[in-house]
Amino acid sequence: MASSRRGSGSSGGRDAPSVMGGHREGNTNTPKSPSPQSKKSFASFVKKVKMGKKIEKALKDKGHSSASQEHEDDSKTPEPGDDSEPHVCTGNLSVDFTELCRRNNMAVIPPVVQRPHRPVTPPPEPASKAEKGKGKQQQQQPEPDPEPEGEGEPVEPPPKTYTTKDKYEYFKPTVQVEMDNPDKWDTVTEVFVKGWKIDETMMNVFKQCWLTMDRLHTINLWDTGLTCDTVEILSGFLPQCANLKTVILDGNPVPEENWYSLIGDESQIQTLSLRYNQITDKGAEQIGKALGTTQKANTKLLSLNLNGNRITDVGATAIAGGLRMNRNLLSLSLEHNQIGDLGAKKFGEVLSRFPLTHEEVVERRKLLSEKGAPDRTKSPPPSRRADSKDRPGSVRSSSQIDKKRDKSSKKKDTKGKDEKDDKKGKKEDKTAGKKASVVAETAGKTAAKGKDKKGGKDKKGAVQQEAEPETPELANPLLEQVENINHELWVPGNRVLISLNLKKNLIGSEGMKELLKAIQYQTTFSKLSSGSGTGLMRICLNKNKVSMDNDILEKINQMMLTKDPFYKPPPSSPENESQVAG
């Protein structure tokens, strides 16, 4: 057993290699020692590896610190839509609009651009210079290159009267503006938005921007999909825009037809255009009430355009009813509606003269009573109540009766003395009057100086308070001179409206007759009395139910021709001048 174990151990010892001195037992070849060059290359490689690890570690630390810093910065900056730090508008529409849209998380922010204009055509050269330079141009003009054969017609350069844009660039939503100074975005005067929807969020953005724009005077929102809510928002903040006078909202049909809110009591709008908004008699009745009623009337609106709607005789009657008490509107356009003879008759009645209703008569009496006795409700001061002549004798006190008796006895005693001193008193009165006048003048000068010092600008910079200009009050038509005809009070009609457009309606010969009577009445009334207003100066009745050859329409056109401010009489021919001279 021992021998076998030894044999196996010996045999294992022979077959298995044993490591002695760094080499195998059975290998007779000794290993070569490394050369010094290989040692140097190995050492440089180790150094590079160590440096690479250090760089990686530094980069990791730097990346971690920068990421943490970015995270801190992100936590400090306000996120879009964060209400903790609201944006304060500065009047720069481009910056304010973009920032407010970003804060409201809008996916597409329309850019604010200047409104494009047609390129200016170069002025033609004078004829003399052109003739002189003809010969030189012909001499200096190079010969045209021969056209290439087989390549088709030559490509002409685009004309200079328009500019081209990329595909679909024209249809992208933009906010177009007009500015006083093209280099300054805080000088925007007009805003144009066309062809894209304005929802409540966008309208609130416009609200914040427009309230800080001092020079803005015109807003044009064409086909922007306005709703009842957006119209309410618009009418709520427009009175706060001090210089905003023109509002154009064409192509925006609203089922609720709450357009009357734009011309309410606080409205400052002077020009309002509501063309092609599908306004029916419902909206026209509300607009008529907003123009004027017995108790109040709009005093700011000068021009109203209701072309291309669905207004019939009912709506026209309501608008004409608003003109009964309105004495501020100058231009009214109702072209392309459905107004017939009844509506034309109501307009003719308002323009000539009309009887007052019961409500208007009651209001007239109230105004006359307030005008005739403004201090009727005031009670006399307490010091004068005892001496009042209206007080009955039974209530008067005995002390006052005694005072009167004493006064009468004193008058009898001093009557003789007063006659002697009259002459002296007159002389003294004259000298005293002169002295008093001198004192009054000096006192007035000193008082004026004191007021100037108080009201003027001090050294510290106190600003002088300017007096507000007084606005003239419009005459109330109920207080005009009336005529009693068949137990009815008739007042003169509206002579402030100077332009009326009833083109493309359903007016027949009966309606034309009423309008002709109104024009005749206005011409005679203006000649007889110098009242307020000149009456109609322009009226358009073309393309109604009557033809252009109608006698009534021709009379109207002839009467209005000379009243038209743009009318130019035909130049007189030399033959006519010679006949007149002869």
From TrEMBL:
Gene3D superfamilies registered for this protein in UniProt: Ribonuclease Inhibitor
Acidic residues: bias regions: 144-154
Region feature Disordered, mapped onto this chain: 1-91, 110-166, 365-474, 563-582
SMART domains (UniProt xref): LRR_RI (SM00368)
UniProt-listed InterPro entries: Leu-rich_rpt, LRR-containing_protein_71, LRR_dom_sf
Segments of skewed composition (Basic and acidic residues): 53-79, 365-393, 415-432, 449-461
Composition bias type Low complexity, residue spans: 31-46
Alphabetized Pfam families for the sequence: LRR_6
This protein's name: Leucine-rich repeat-containing protein 71 isoform X4
Protein species of origin: Lingula anatina (Brachiopod)
Gene coding for it: LOC106172405
